Amino acid sequence: MSLGPVMLDLKGCEIEPEEREMLAHPLAGGVILFSRNYDSPEQISELVRQIHQVKNPHLLVSVDHEGGRVQRFREGFTALPPVALLGEHYNHNKKNAKKLAETCGWLMAIELRAVGIDFSFAPVLDIERGISEVIGDRAFGHNADTVSDLAISYIKGMQKAGMSATGKHFPGHGAVQADSHIACPVDERSFEDIYAEDVIPFERLINNGLAGIMPAHVVYENVDPNPAGFSRFWLNEVLRNRLGFQGVIFSDDLSMEGAKVAGDVVDRARAALSAGCDMALVCNNSEAAGKVLDRLGDYDNPVSHIRLVRMHGRHFVNRKELLKQKEWKQAVAVVDELSEGGTYELDV
Known about the structure:
The structure is a single chain. The chain is α/β, with parallel strands linked by helices. Helices cover about 40% and strands about 10% of the residues. The chain has one domain: TIM Barrel. Strand 4 (about 65) and strand 5 (about 70) form a beta hairpin. The protein is globular, with a radius of gyration of 19 Å.
């Protein structure tokens, strides 16, 4: 059995019978968890265990756990700061900021691996331009060098914890004001400007082991009439051919407003996969997810299967043992100090 191209979500803290049937569907390949699925570390660990039992190889289990505004699990997990704080430190002490970024990436990933989560959709590789409120402090900084340097260190920490990284939102969401959750943003810049600035962090991260990429639900109208996640040009010509990316391409949530230009939800899934995505996300709409599974039809991409399996978490992590470790305690102290606005100096 192989992993299918559709990632689904769940309604609550347990798998409902009809959801179990959907997860067992040949086209199902993963689950994305949200705050509504979380009650405690023990509960989420059991939920992940049950999801993993549905198939072999096991379904990918993911979550958006960036820190700051976007952290799905709170109680029982370290409160992670927005990565923009790392950018502020980078302006004063690059070496220390990069070590802080590695610590944050490791702590985020190791705590998720300790409850069985395969990966988090992180880090954000967008450049903060003071335009996009939906990005804002989710970005490392205001220029490509800051974002690239800190993100490389961040994914180094993730990799150390046994987690693959997924960069978003290709080729860059920071230059549009509209939020693609509720609108279809349009970026009017030329290809040359986008490629010379926003694409740089993705290119540098690809050369440093980036395993996954999520494209933006943004139309770059002077490049392609389709949003990037439905664009063969952006995904195949630029991402695969020019940048040489061989990892997984995940669509952003196909239930978002920015995806609706591609038709109904089944058309959106087909368009995303046809454009070059390896996995299509259908979230917060179980009826729509069911339609995709029922109507997408036969889909078999052996290369995608190989890519997706590589996103499985590595290294079993015992949570009780983790919480006793000196390395974890030190990392929590560093992150707490960073969150409180301190200038914690690491021994680098």
